[in-house]
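Sequence, structure tokens reproduced for absentees:
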Amino acid sequence: MNLLAIETSTESCSVALLCDDTLFERSEVAPRRHAQLALPMADAVLAEAGVARAGIHAIAVGAGPGAFTGVRLGVSMAQGLGFALGCPVYAVSSLQALAMEAPMTPGASILAVIDARMGEVYTASYRVGDGGALRGVDEERVCAPDALDLAPADSWAVVGSGWGTYADTIGAQLPAPPAWAEPECFPQARHVARLAMPRLMAGEPGAPEQALPVYLRNKVALTIDEQRAARAARQGKG
């Protein structure tokens, strides 16, 4: 089975083709260039695998949360390919794909956290099961970095750009320093593909129009007054 995956929800643009257990992928950190890169990347992995577009059995897409423009681009591309090829399209959580960048040690607790700008983060937490599968511990949400409300755990692995921006604030809410932490990680199409493949193998229909973006909030920028208030708050803390 050939599954093409697209992930453009953050600064990283990636495309992967999972042919049964063989993976072909392209990935580049390229803010504002996703529209130019995504389709050529898809053509490149198909050519490397020797698979024609007609040989794609399903499309998977990182549906967010993340940058509004990137999420829309990825979902639109996946839906368009799905309609054109008559194949299912599966929306996958970009936060869950991000969590898979952390060490997948059975029993580990993983906090995925993406800098959402405007003083907020997109976040969700997971635990790794005995078989290596991720289980969601809470709901995906957008919140202030000091309001994570984490489930009890002895230690955490933390992954994502939110850690790079708010390490001190997030770290203060953990029971101990992270067992592992990496801010320079982004959701990757290879994980989107592996999360979606069981759905393809199970024969899940995956109507393209039902693969919808996940935004978690409905505004993309602060007003001038909100920006001034945020600056004042930062200066007050300093």
Q: What stands out?
A: Residues 220-227 have pLDDT under 50 and may be disordered. The CA atoms of residues 113 and 154 lie 19 Å apart.
